[in-house]
Specification:
5-stranded parallel beta sheet, 261 residues, 8 helices
């Protein structure tokens, strides 16, 4: 069955997107990404060398663009102007590749998104021809506004970046999924495989994670677990779960014909 994640007109077999930060070194990054099966990998332009520092190791030597879709992000940006400048630089470094991840943070402590600045930056970037995947609050109204601006994917947080708290508000995510026509990808807060499965069972189109893999005791094994979790959750959502029933048992085996009955 062909069940692709389609973003900005391109099909991806994997619905797991992986970050490249916080690993021991680029070699571990590559091994974990390969174990995850991810085809889209995010890169913090302000923190990772993609060639702007010629005397330092280049991530693209370990994760070549011919094999992976490199998704530059604006981690560490706190204003729309910072984010726009960063992604203009990324486009130059990646030979004009238009697909980007926008995140504009509100404060350094929580890394919660600054939604007014995010909306401002998204408007500018879309008008400049970028294909914008956007990190945002789990607010269905603002998520719809971002879609209407022309964003290619909406990426609400499940909980705070790096917290590992999992999905704290499944009802808001469900509202966003119901109302948004472009892919909805959970971004931030996933801590373990069950969190990823729940996100997919809710109907999310994908899950993006970094810390949950990179800070696991065994990042490579966790990457493999996350791959299976996303696939399992997607299969369960496509299959359609049984309805929940309150105080009404329905035995799997028939009661008729039992001995003594």
């Amino acid at each position: 069955m062909n069940d692709f994640l389609t973003i900005a007109g391109k099909n991806y077999a994997s619905r797991l997107l992986a970050g490249t930060g916080k690993y021991r070194d680029f070699a571990q990054t590559r091994t974990a990404i390969e174990a995850s099966g991810a085809q889209i990998v995010t890169v913090a332009i302000r923190r990772t060398n993609l060639g702007q520092n010629p005397d330092e190791p280049n991530l693209l030597e370990f994760l070549p663009p011919e094999r992976f879709t490199i998704l530059p992000n604006t981690a560490g940006c706190f204003t729309a102007d910072e984010a726009v400048r960063t992604l203009r630089l990324a486009r130059e470094l990646l030979d004009g590749a238009p697909l980007v991840k926008l995140e504009v943070l509100g404060e350094a402590k929580s890394l919660y998104p600054n939604m007014p600045e995010t909306l401002k930056a998204a408007d500018i970037l879309v008008r400049e021809g970028f294909q914008v995947m956007v990190y945002c609050a789990d607010d269905p109204i603002q998520a719809k506004m971002l879609e209407e601006l022309g964003c290619a994917a909406i990426m609400p947080l499940a909980s705070l970046i790096g917290s590992g708290m999992g999905i704290l508000n499944p009802w808001n995510l469900a509202l966003i999924i119901e109302r948004i026509g472009v892919p909805v990808i959970v971004d931030a807060g996933v801590g373990t495989a069950s969190d990823a499965t729940i996100a997919m069972e809710l109907g999310c189109d994908g899950v993006l994670m970094n810390t949950a893999i990179a800070h696991a005791k065994d990042p490579v094994r966790m990457a493999g677990a996350m791959k299976k979790a996303v696939e399992s959750g997607r299969e369960a959502w496509l299959a359609g779960r049984m309805p929940k029933k309150n105080y009404l048992a329905d035995p799997s085996s028939p009661l008729t014909g039992l001995i003594g009955s």
